[in-house]
Amino acid sequence: MICGACGANQLSHDVRDFPYLYKGKKIVIASLEADYCAACGEVILDAHGASRLSALIREFQQRVDNGEKKSLDM
């Protein structure tokens, strides 16, 4: 499959942990299934993966914005 971002023919379907940084706080979203570009790092999600990622990021951002001090692991 060709990457839509860089045009490289290096997309691979894989399950990886996905790091995310927001306002200096970092989480790692475990086991994100997607197509990953080895050339530019682009991540292409299916509808389920995109929905899961969006929900977890939204929850994480709310927790950071509310000043929660407890573990922010997702």
CATH architecture: Roll
The amount of beta strand, in percent, is 35-45%
Helix segment count?
Answer: 1
* Averaged pLDDT: 91
Main beta sheet, described? 3 strands, antiparallel
Distance between the termini: 30 Å
**Domains, number:** 1
Number of E-state strands: 3
Give me the Rg, rounded: 14 Å
Q: Mind telling me the CATH class?
A: Alpha Beta
**Low-confidence parts, pLDDT < 50 over ≥5 residues?**
none
**Could you state the order of secondary-structure elements as H and E?**
EEEH
User: What strand line-up does the widest sheet have?
Assistant: 1-2-3
Name the shape in a single word: elongated
Helix content: 25-40%
What do we call the CATH topology? Ubiquitin-like (UB roll)
Class by helix and strand content?
alpha+beta
Protein name: YgiT-type zinc finger protein
Organism: Duganella radicis
Pfam families: MqsA_antitoxin
InterPro entries: MqsA/HigA-2, Znf_MqsA-type
